[in-house]
C-alpha cells in the first residue's frame, strides 16, 4: 500500500513518523503481504478492509470513529467486527459504515445528525453496531457524506439517513435530519448501479448511465446549470448520452467516468480540483481536456482534490488542493490540471517480470482518496495482476438482474424444494420492478446507453429467450415463485407516475413472460398489469407507445395477442354467467383488457401498421356476445352521454359494450353491426310513418305516407323508371325498407325481387356503352369517365342506388377497383390502386421508382403531363402547374407518380365522384360504415368468391319428402359438385340472385330444397326471395344434370308457382 497526504492524526497508518505531511507516495510496511480490498477515508481517519474481511482503522479517534481504543498512528484491527466478513467501507467526516458479505450494515463514530442510522441519543458510538432497521434488506453498496449516509439494496432501493440541511437525503423540503434509514420512494423502479456521496450532496447512477443528484449545490456540484440546492433527486440531463459508468464526490465537487475512459468534473474549482486549468466553479459537467488522450479506468475524489489512473502508462494523475501533500507531487502546491503523482510506475502488460530491480517499481491495483489523504494498492511487477477497472461492474455490488448465469443457477436445483437463498433471490428479483428494468439490456454496441423516449435500451429477443428458459413445466416451483412475487409484491406497488424512462421498461418486458399468457394468471397478473398500464400518466404512456411503435412485428403482436386472449377468456366467463356481486369487478377487468388493446391499436395506426389491422380482430366475439344487443346498448350509452374515455375507476358501473372498441370486430361482425343499424333506422322510419298515418286520420292536413320505399319499374325501362322515383324521394324515405314491383309480374317482394332489381339496374347503369364509366380491358374493371355527357345528378342517383343495396342487405355486382371503396371511406388511392385498374401503367410507374441509375431524364423522357384520349384525339393534361416544362428526374419521380395517381382517381373525376359519394352516404353513411376497411366494404357490397361448396351442402335444409340421404338429393349433389366453377356460380345466381357469397360466408347462405309433385319432365324452379329450390324427384343422374343446366341458363323473371 502506498500512502500520501495529511498524516497529522496518523490517518495514513505509517506509524510514529515525524512528518505531518507526506508529499509523495510512501510504502506502508503494515500492508506488506496483505491484500487490501477497500479503503474509506474520513476527514481525519482511515478505514482499511482486507480481503479476508477484517477491518483496520487509524487516525483521529476523538469521536469514536476508529471503533477501538488502540493506537491511532498505525492500523489496528476493529475486534468488534471479527465475526463479520466485511467487504466494503465508507467514511463521513467522523463516522464510518461497514458492509458485510450478507448485506448487513454496521456503523460507528459521530452520530449528532443520525448519520449512523441507530436508535438512541448518543453523540457518538465507539463500537460498531448493526443497523437493525436494514437487517431484512440485502444491501450491496454504502456511501457516506460528511453527516449523512446512503445505501443501495439488492432490489435497487436507495435509503438515506442523517443530516438533511441541504436536502442531501432526497426526501423533500419538509423532512429534518433522520436517525433511521428512509426509503427514497421517488427513485423506485429505476435500476441503479452505484450510490455516491459528497460533503452534503448525493448521487445515484443507473445501469444505463443516467445520473440523479440532490443536496447542496452552492458551487454547482450537482451539474444542473445553477447553484440551487435540491431536496429531491434531479436528473443530470447533460450527461445522459455520455455513457457514465462511475461517479465519485469530493466535499463540493463531483467527477464522472465514461465507458470510453473520459472524465467529466463539475462543482467547486477554487483549488483546481476540476482539472480545467482554472480555479473557476463549473455548474455544468465539463470534460477534463488534458486527460482526453488517455483512457482513464479509475477516479477518486478527496475533500478538495481528484485522482485519476491511466493503465496504459501505469500512472496516477492528481489535481486540486496540495497543501497537505495529498496530490503526491512532492510539493504542497495546488495543481489546476492533471499532474503525475511521483513514483516508479509500471504499466500492466499481462506478463510476469523477472528483473531483480523491479522491486523499485509499482503496478497500481486500485486507488483511493478521501479527506486530504490518498492511497494506492499496488503489486510488484513479478506478482503483477491486472488493475481494477471502475468501468466494469462488480457483480457482488450490483442489484439482481436476470441473466443466463443466474437462470442456470436457479435451474440447477431441479429436484425437490430449492434452498431458501434461491427462493429469496427469485422473490427479490421478481418483486422489484427496478431489477426487471435492469435486465435484458441491449449491450451490443452499448445500445442501452441510448435509452430515452424513443429507445427502450432492451434486447427483447434476449428477454423472450431467457423468460422461456426460466419458465418451464419441468420447474413448477420456479414458476410458482415467480407468479407469487409478481402478483403479491410487484404489480400491486406499481404507480401511475414514474421517475425516469428506465423505470418504464418493465411494461415492455413482462408480456414476454410465459406466465402472462397462462389463462390461470389472467385475473391475478395480466389484468392487474394492464390496469397499471392503462393508469399510467400521459408522459410515461407516450414513451411506452413510442417504444411499442419500433418493436418488431412478432413482438408487438405478442402483446396484442395476450390481451385478445384475456378478452376472450372474460367473454367466455360472461357467457357462462357472472353473479351480480362480481359484475363490477368483471366490468373493470374487461374494460382494462380492451383499453390496453385500444392503446396498442392507436399505436399501430399511428405508425402505419406494425401489424395488419386484422390482427386486432377477435373472431370469437360474435359467438360470445349478442352483437345486436351490444350495439343497442352502445347507442343508448351515447344517447345518455356516458363517457367511456375516463379512467377505469369511473367505468366499472357502466355495462361493457364491445362497440366502444370497434377495432376488435372482423368484417362479419361489422356487417352485422351495419345491418343492425339499418334495421334500427328502418324501424324508426316505419314508426314515424305509422305515427304520421295515425295523425292523418284526425288531421286531414297531414298526408298519409307509405312505411316502405316503393319502386315500381318496367323491365324495359328499369333505369328511367327507377331514376324518376328516386329523384322525387325525400332523404328520410331512403331509410325505409325498399320494396320493388316489376310491372306485369305477380311476385311479392320478400327479397328476391329486390335482388334482381339491383342486378339488372346496375348492369344497365354501369354498361360502358352509356359513357358514364370507362371499361379497362386489362383489368376488366370500370372507373368514372371524365368524358361523359351525363350530368352529376345521374351519378348522385347511382350513388343512392349503391347505398340502397347495402342498406337493404343486397349484394350487387360492381366492377370497380378497391380505390372506389377507399375514397368512400376517405382514404387516399395509391400506386397499388393504379396497378389494379391499369396494370401496364402501374408496372411502368413502379419501374420508374425502382430505376437505380441517375439518367432518368434520358431513359424515360417524361414530364409532369398525362396524355388522354378525347373522342379519337389525344390531349395532353398538366399534372402540376408548368408540368409540360417540368422534367421527371430522380428527385421528383415520387411526386410525379403521386400526381399521376391523383389525376386518375381524383382530379379528373372530382365532380362525378363527389356526386356519387354524396348519394351513397345519403343512404348508408354513418359511424358504423367508417369502421370498415376498404377491402371489407368491397366484400360487403359485392360479396366475395371464397366458395366452399361442401359448406354449402352441409348447411342446406330440406323440406317435404327430401332429407340429406334421399336418392334424388344424393344425385343432385353428385351432379352439382361435378359442374365447372362457372356453372356453379350460375346456380348461385339462379337460386339467390347473385353469383357471389355474402361477407358472412357460405354458412350464412342457407339454401332450402323441397320436393315437387311434377314428374321428371319438369324443370327445377327457384324462389330467390327465400333461396328455395323446387326440385322434382329425378331418378336418373343425367336427366337431373340436363334439367338443372337448362334451368340455370334461363334465370330471369318472376312468377307465382
TrEMBL record:
Name the Pfam families on file: HECT (PF00632), WD40_RLD (PF25390)
Q: Give me the reactions it catalyses.
A: S-ubiquitinyl-[E2 ubiquitin-conjugating enzyme]-L-cysteine + [acceptor protein]-L-lysine = [E2 ubiquitin-conjugating enzyme]-L-cysteine + N(6)-ubiquitinyl-[acceptor protein]-L-lysine
Instruction: Please tell me which top-level EC class this enzyme sits in.
Output: transferase
What the entry lists under SMART domains is as follows:
HECTc
Q: Tell me the ranges covered by the HECT domain, including all copies.
A: 730-1057
Principal localization reads cytoplasm
Q: Cite the EC number.
A: 2.3.2.26
Q: Which residues form the active site?
A: 1025
Q: Where in the cell is it found?
A: Cytoplasm, Cytosol
* Keywords linked to the UniProt accession: Cytoplasm, Differentiation, Repeat, Spermatogenesis, Transferase, Ubl conjugation pathway
Named in its record, the pathway it takes part in is: Protein modification; protein ubiquitination
One term under GO cellular component: fibrillar center
Q: Which GO terms describe its molecular function?
A: ubiquitin protein ligase activity
- Tell me where the RCC repeats sit in this chain: 1-52, 53-102, 103-155, 156-208, 209-260, 261-312, 314-380
- GO biological process terms held by the UniProt record: cell differentiation; negative regulation of smoothened signaling pathway; protein ubiquitination; spermatogenesis; ubiquitin-dependent protein catabolic process
Annotated InterPro entries? HECT_dom, Hect_E3_ubiquitin_ligase, RCC1-like_dom, RCC1/BLIP-II, Reg_chr_condens, Ub-ligase/GTPase-reg
Q: What does this protein do?
A: Probable E3 ubiquitin-protein ligase involved in either protein trafficking or in the distribution of cellular structures. Required for spermatozoon maturation and fertility, and for the removal of the cytoplasmic droplet of the spermatozoon. E3 ubiquitin-protein ligases accept ubiquitin from an E2 ubiquitin-conjugating enzyme in the form of a thioester and then directly transfer it to targeted substrates.
**What protein does this entry describe?**
Probable E3 ubiquitin-protein ligase HERC4
Name the gene that codes for it.
HERC4
Amino acid at each position: 500500500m502506498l500512502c500520501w497526504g495529511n498524516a497529522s492524526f496518523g490517518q495514513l497508518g505509517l506509524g510514529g513518523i515525524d512528518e505531518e505531511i507526506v508529499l509523495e507516495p510512501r510504502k506502508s510496511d503494515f500492508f506488506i503481504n496483505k491484500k487490501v480490498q477497500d479503503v474509506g477515508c474520513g476527514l481525519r481517519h482511515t478505514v482499511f478492509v482486507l480481503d479476508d474481511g477484517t477491518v483496520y482503522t487509524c487516525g483521529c479517534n476523538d469521536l469514536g470513529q476508529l471503533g477501538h481504543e488502540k493506537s491511532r498512528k498505525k492500523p489496528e484491527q476493529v475486534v468488534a467486527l471479527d465475526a463479520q466478513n466485511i467487504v466494503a467501507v465508507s467514511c463521513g467526516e467522523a463516522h464510518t459504515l461497514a458492509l458485510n458479505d450478507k448485506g448487513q450494515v454496521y456503523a460507528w463514530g459521530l452520530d449528532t445528525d443520525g448519520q449512523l442510522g441507530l436508535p438512541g441519543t448518543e453523540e457518538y458510538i465507539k463500537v460498531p453496531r448493526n443497523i437493525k432497521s436494514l437487517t431484512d434488506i440485502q444491501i450491496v453498496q454504502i456511501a457516506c457524506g460528511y453527516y449523512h449516509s446512503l445505501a443501495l439494496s439488492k432490489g435497487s432501493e436507495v435509503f438515506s439517513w442523517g443530516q438533511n440541511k441541504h436536502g442531501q437525503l432526497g426526501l423533500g423540503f419538509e423532512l429534518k435530519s433522520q436517525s433511521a434509514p428512509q426509503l427514497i420512494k421517488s427513485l423506485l423502479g429505476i435500476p441503479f448501479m452505484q450510490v455516491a456521496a459528497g460533503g452534503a450532496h448525493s448521487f445515484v447512477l443507473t445501469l444505463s448511465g443516467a445520473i440523479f443528484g440532490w443536496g447542496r449545490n452552492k458551487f454547482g456540484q450537482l451539474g444542473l446549470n445553477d447553484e440551487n440546492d435540491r431536496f429531491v433527486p434531479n436528473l443530470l440531463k447533460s450527461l445522459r448520452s455520455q455513457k457514465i459508468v462511475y461517479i465519485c464526490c469530493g466535499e463540493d465537487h463531483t467527477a464522472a467516468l465514461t465507458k470510453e475512459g473520459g472524465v467529466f468534473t463539475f462543482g467547486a474549482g477554487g483549488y483546481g480540483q476540476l482539472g480545467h486549468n482554472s480555479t473557476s466553479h463549473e455548474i455544468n459537467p465539463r470534460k477534463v481536456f488534458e486527460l482526453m488522450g488517455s483512457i482513464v479506468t479509475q477516479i477518486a475524489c478527496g475533500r478538495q482534490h481528484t485522482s485519476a489512473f491511466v493503465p496504459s502508462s501505469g500512472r496516477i494523475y492528481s489535481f486540486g488542493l496540495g497543501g497537505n501533500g495529498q496530490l503526491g507531487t512532492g510539493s504542497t502546491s495546488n495543481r489546476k490540471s492533471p499532474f503525475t503523482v511521483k513514483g516508479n510506475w509500471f504499466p500492466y502488460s499481462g506478463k510476469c517480470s523477472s528483473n531483480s530491480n523491479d522491486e523499485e517499481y509499482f503496478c497500481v491495483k486500485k486507488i483511493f482518496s478521501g479527506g486530504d489523504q490518498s492511497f494506492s494498492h499496488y503489486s510488484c511487477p513479478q506478482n503483477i495482476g491486472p488493475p481494477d477497472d471502475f468501468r466494469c461492474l462488480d457483480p457482488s455490488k450490483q442489484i439482481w438482474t436476470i441473466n443466463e448465469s443466474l437462470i442456470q443457477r436457479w435451474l440447477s436445483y431441479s429436484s425437490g424444494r430449492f434452498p431458501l437463498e434461491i427462493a429469496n433471490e427469485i422473490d427479490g428479483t421478481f418483486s422489484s420492478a427496478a431489477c426487471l428494468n435492469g435486465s435484458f439490456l441491449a449491450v451490443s454496441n452499448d445500445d442501452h446507453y441510448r435509452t430515452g423516449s424513443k429507445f427502450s435500451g432492451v434486447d427483447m429477443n434476449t428477454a423472450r429467450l431467457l423468460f422461456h428458459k426460466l419458465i418451464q413445466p419441468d420447474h413448477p416451483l420456479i414458476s410458482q415463485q415467480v407468479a407469487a412475487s409478481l402478483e403479491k409484491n410487484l404489480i400491486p406497488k406499481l404507480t401511475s407516475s414514474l421517475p425516469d424512462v428506465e423505470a418504464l421498461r418493465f411494461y415492455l418486458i413482462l408480456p414476454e413472460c410465459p406466465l402472462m399468457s397462462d389463462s390461470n394468471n389472467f385475473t391475478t397478473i395480466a389484468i392487474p398489469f394492464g390496469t397499471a398500464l392503462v393508469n399510467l400518466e400521459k408522459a410515461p404512456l407516450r414513451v411506452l407507445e413510442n417504444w411499442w411503435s419500433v418493436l418488431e412485428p412478432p413482438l408487438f403482436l405478442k402483446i396484442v395477442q395476450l390481451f385478445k386472449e384475456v378478452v376472450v377468456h372474460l367473454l367466455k366467463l360472461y357467457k357462462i354467467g357472472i353473479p351480480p356481486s362480481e359484475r363490477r369487478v368483471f366490468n373493470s377487468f374487461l374494460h382494462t383488457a380492451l383499453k390496453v388493446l385500444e392503446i396498442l391499436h392507436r399505436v399501430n395506426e399511428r405508425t402505419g401498421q406494425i401489424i395488419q389491422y386484422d390482427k386486432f380482430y377477435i373472431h370469437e366475439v360474435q359467438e360470445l356476445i349478442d352483437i345486436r344487443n351490444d350495439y343497442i346498448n352502445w347507442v343508448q350509452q351515447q344517447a345518455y352521454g356516458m363517457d367511456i374515455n375516463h379512467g377505469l375507476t369511473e367505468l366499472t358501473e357502466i355495462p361493457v359494450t364491445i362497440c366502444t372498441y370497434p377495432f376488435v370486430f372482423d368484417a362479419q361482425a361489422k356487417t352485422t353491426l351495419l345491418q343492425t343499424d339499418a334495421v334500427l333506422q328502418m324501424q324508426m322510419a316505419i314508426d314515424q310513418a305509422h305515427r304520421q298515418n295515425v295523425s292523418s286520420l284526425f288531421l286531414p292536413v297531414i298526408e298519409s305516407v307509405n312505411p316502405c320505399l316503393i319502386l315500381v319499374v318496367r323491365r324495359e325501362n328499369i333505369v328511367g323508371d327507377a331514376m324518376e322515383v328516386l329523384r322525387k324521394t325525400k332523404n328520410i324515405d331512403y331509410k325505409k325498407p325498399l320494396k320493388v314491383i316489376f310491372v306485369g309480374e305477380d311476385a311479392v317482394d320478400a327479397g328476391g325481387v329486390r335482388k334482381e332489381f339491383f342486378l339488372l339496374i346496375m348492369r344497365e347503369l354501369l354498361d360502358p356503352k352509356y359513357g358514364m364509366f370507362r371499361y379497362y380491358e386489362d383489368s376488366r374493371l370500370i372507373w368514372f369517365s371524365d368524358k361523359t355527357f351525363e350530368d352529376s345528378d345521374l351519378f348522385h342517383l347511382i350513388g343512392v342506388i349503391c347505398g340502397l343495396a347495402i342498406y337493404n342487405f343486397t349484394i350487387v355486382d360492381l366492377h370497380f377497383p378497391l380505390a372506389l371503396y377507399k375514397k368512400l371511406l376517405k382514404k387516399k388511392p395509391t400506386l397499388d390502386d393504379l396497378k389494379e385498374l391499369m396494370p401496364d401503367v402501374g408496372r411502368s410507374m413502379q419501374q420508374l421508382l425502382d430505376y437505380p441509375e441517375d439518367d432518368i431524364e434520358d431513359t424515360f423522357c417524361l414530364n409532369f403531363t398525362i396524355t388522354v384520349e378525347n373522342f379519337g384525339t389525344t390531349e395532353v393534361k398538366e399534372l402540376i402547374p408548368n408540368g409540360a416544362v417540368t422534367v421527371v428526374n430522380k428527385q421528383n419521380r415520387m411526386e410525379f407518380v403521386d400526381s399521376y395517381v391523383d389525376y386518375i382517381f381524383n382530379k379528373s373525376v372530382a365532380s362525378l365522384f363527389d356526386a356519387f359519394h354524396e348519394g351513397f352516404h345519403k343512404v348508408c353513411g354513418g359511424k358504423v360504415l367508417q369502421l370498415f376497411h376498404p377491402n371489407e366494404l368491397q366484400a360487403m357490397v359485392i360479396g366475395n368468391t371464397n366458395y366452399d361448396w361442401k359448406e354449402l351442402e352441409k348447411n342446406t335444409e330440406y323440406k317435404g319428402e327430401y332429407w340429406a340421404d334421399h336418392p334424388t338429393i344424393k344425385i343432385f349433389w353428385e351432379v352439382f359438385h361435378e359442374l365447372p366453377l362457372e356453372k356453379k356460380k350460375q346456380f348461385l345466381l339462379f337460386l339467390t340472385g347473385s353469383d357471389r357469397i355474402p361477407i358472412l360466408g357460405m354458412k350464412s347462405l342457407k339454401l332450402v330444397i323441397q320436393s315437387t309433385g311434377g314428374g321428371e319432365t319438369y324443370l327445377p324452379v327457384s324462389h330467390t326471395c327465400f333461396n328455395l329450390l323446387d326440385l322434382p324427384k329425378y331418378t336418373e343422374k343425367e336427366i337431373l344434370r340436363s334439367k338443372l343446366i337448362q334451368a340455370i341458363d334461363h334465370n330471369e323473371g318472376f312468377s307465382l308457382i
